[in-house]
Amino acid sequence: RLISTTPHSGALGPRPESNFLALAMQGKKVSFDKVIRMIDRMVATLATEQTDGDQTQTYCPKEFHGSDDKKRATERNI
User: Cα separation of 66 and 78, whole Å?
Assistant: First the structure.
């Protein structure tokens, strides 16, 4: 047999995804709704993190420039 119905044990222990694949290969009905929901949540989280990263990327250079100007002004006053 190409795929065993028992979970594969590796360095990280049994792998649950192998159970899904084994059941699917045997012709039993397996619902991937939970997996699809998890992927949808992950995509939404990544989109939020990307937006946050973009905002940080525009905010940080402005702050660095402003603090550099303040530093130079302080050095001139000293």
Answer: 19
